[in-house]
Amino acid sequence: DSGVTQTPKHLITATGQRVTLRCSPRSGDLSVYWYQQSLDQGLQFLIQYYNGEERAKGNILERFSAQQFPDLHSELNLSSLELGDSALYFCASSVDSNSQETQYFGPGTRLLVL
Amino acid sequence: GENVEQHPSTLSVQEGDSAVIKCTYSDSASNYFPWYKQELGKGPQLIIDIRSNVGEKKDQRIAVTLNKTAKHFSLHITETQPEDSAVYFCASTGFQKLVFGTGTRLLVSP
Question: Given the DSSP bridges, would you call strands B104-109 and B86-94 parallel, antiparallel or unpaired?
Fold first, then answer.
């Protein structure tokens, strides 16, 4: 158990809908990262937040957004969902914002868009 | 841009054999190289990492080697066991983020 929690574990929705994925980092970690894992794409970095502020951005679509709240939990919002958004979404956390810091991954949310 | 190539994509070994997974990175500024193990239905779990100031690191049956000149790093698992079966990902630091390899599916047969 990494100490990172994610909810829900599974999510099934329809195209065009909007969903919110939630992540709670390990106690004491200030950085939260979001990744997308699909069968043919491996682990793709989406976005990083550090202590409430956006720190780094990866291949995140404009339809997707995220935020980190004062209690350090984070939410990833996916809107206007398409079939191709079906994937595993992982959250990871680390103590600091440096990319050399060890990242600890949560169990993931499996999103299926029908 | 930043890229990490990982080989092989699949690896089948007999229990007790050794397994080696190799990665090549493109960013010469990379200085942190973690390895993650992902079991079915779970998130990636860090198993070992190495920083650019060392060439090798070992933890029981797992070792990682780094050749900064060639921009190669490798994961070595000795005396493999069925519970080592999983997908293994290498990663290296890119600009502001970790860049992951495409994964190696390791199957250890009893």
Answer: antiparallel
